[in-house]
Amino acid sequence: MTERVRRPRASKRKLRAWAWVAGALAFLAPAAVFGAAPKPPQDTAQETDRPALVIRKITRRIVITRPAASSPVRYVAGGSTSGSGSVGSAPAATSTGGS
Description:
- By secondary structure, this protein is mainly α.
- About 30% of the residues lie in helices and about 0% in strands.
- The chain has a domain at about 10-35.
């Protein structure tokens, strides 16, 4: 019987290169499928019924300030605060109503 000659094995470098090529093809295949697919027809009636889009960019600015320093409170002793009379007024005059 004749023995067959065995092919030499591929090196690790070649196997890794083929793995990278296969991975890249698997990654790019969906993009190629979507790119080749025909676009659906557009109805002109739908476009006129839609309102125009308005895109606005809103920027909010926050300013942080320190609270104003309050002046110390000073209490001054004064007259009486009870009753309806004003401070420092003389008492009302009274009479005994006699003879």
